[in-house]
Amino acid sequence: MGPMESLQALGWRPGFQSQFDPASGLLPARVMAVQRGRVEVAHENGMTQIDLSGKAATLGITVGDWVLLDQNVTAIRERLERFALFQRRAAGTGAGRQLIAANVDTLFVVTSANRDFNEARLERYLAIAHDAGAFPVIVITKADTVDSAAPFVGAASRLAPGVLVEALDARDPEAVEVLRPWCETGQTVALLGSSGVGKSTLINTLTGAHQETTAVREDDQRGRHTTTSRSMHRLPQGGWLIDTPGMRELQLVDVADALDDVFAEVAALAERCRFSDCAHDAEPGCAVQAAITDGTLDADRLRRYRKLLSEDRRNSETLAERRSRDKQFGKLIKSVLSDKRKGRDGNH
User: Fold this and answer.
1) What DSSP designation does 225 have?
2) pLDDT of residue 324
3) 37: which of 108, 115, 138, 221 is 20 to 30 A away, CA to CA?
């Protein structure tokens, strides 16, 4: 990379330039990999490993972020505002969030032409892509293993308005060529999909590199992905690919608007309901139920929409709200038990 084009080649754009003062003496850098307590960053002068200590540890840095380094290139001074971020609810009972990747232009939502193909899971991934500000492309792998991939492509195409769908053999470089337009210089793509759908194979073909995978078990057509940390891989066309560990349980957080984008036909019908707070169940004047009755809306589609909305509301509660709700519930239980005890004691 030449010094005049290196930042642009790393994905630098005007939105980042407007946050950066060249007179500050700080050095812009992109986070290429995140391990526990340490990140690897790329900048005009090369690559550097930096410990996430002090202020840097509080900045919530994830792979794909742009940061500003001090003059000695030994510490992160600032993280620039992102144009895109996707995240998930962290494991456990708290309401914390885990950052997955930042500043992603395109999200390859990877599934396969076999039993892994699951419309509800794809809708979940599409909502996350919309929320993150990334452009989703559904990639159906293992198309060579079925007589026709058309039923899978048709089903995927109906999941969101205008969503792009590509079916291919992830091992075939010529077949993978259809994804190249999103892999050009300065572009950043990420992959999302459950284990065993061919993400690693697709990465190998896109990058021309080898990434270790384990065999998919015949009995359930699932494999185990060996990636444990998030990292960016250089693509031959000059773009960047962010690899993320297989995420089977991807919880939605604050994506209600994105769900309305994915389920646009349901959201449009809901606006015509008689009541603004219609639950689309048995209320009079419900346009959504009317559409199901006349066959213009799939009942399963509505069921999945309501399920994802419910999950999003639950996960989007703050920890304080959740504790308050649990506390109130605890008081109610104690009150009921106390009343029962008094009633029992009064009967003796």
Assistant:
1) B
2) 65
3) 108
Mean pLDDT of the residues in the chain = 83
Would you call 59 exposed, middle or buried from its count of C-beta atoms within 10 A (0-12, 13-18, 19+)?
middle
* Cβ neighbour number for residue 222 with a 10 Å cutoff: 16
C-beta of residue 319 within 8 angstroms of C-beta of residue 96: yes
Of all helices (H) and strands (E), which one includes residue 306?
helix 299-316
CA 252 to chain centre: 9
Token pair belonging to 176: 């993978």
Rounded to whole angstroms, the Cα distance separating 84 from 101 reads: 8
Note the pLDDT tens digit of each residue in 86-125. Answer: 777 666 655 567 788 899 999 999 999 998 899 988 998 8
pTM: 0.74
Residue 322 has pLDDT above 70, yes or no: no
pLDDT at 70 exceeding the cut of 90: yes
Name the H helices within 60-198.
119-132, 150-157, 173-176
125, 136 in Cβ contact below 8 A? Answer: yes
- Nearest Cα to 100, choosing from 85, 122, 119, 82? 85
Question: If one looks up domain 6-79 in CATH, what number appears?
Answer: 2.40.50.140
State how far the Cα of 243 lies from the Cα of 246, in Å rounded to an integer.
Answer: 9
- The CATH superfamily holding the domain 85-243 is P-loop containing nucleotide triphosphate hydrolases (3.40.50.300)
Q: Which two tokens stand for residue 54?
A: 């002090």
Domain boundaries, the chain: 6-79, 85-243, 256-316
Q: Which residues partner with 107 through β-bridges?
A: 136, 190
Fold of 256-316: Ribonucleotide Reductase Protein R1; domain 1 (1.10.40)
6-79 and 85-243: identical CATH topology: no
Q: Which helix (H) or strand (E) holds 48?
A: strand 46-51
Query: pLDDT digits over 41-59, tens only?
Result: 999 989 999 999 888 888 9
- pLDDT above 90 coverage of the chain, percent: 46
**Which CA distances in Å does 233 have to 63, 118, 139, 237, 242?**
11, 28, 19, 12, 6
Q: Which of 193, 191, 180, 117 is nearest to 154 (CA)?
A: 117
Residue 275 has pLDDT above 80, yes or no: yes
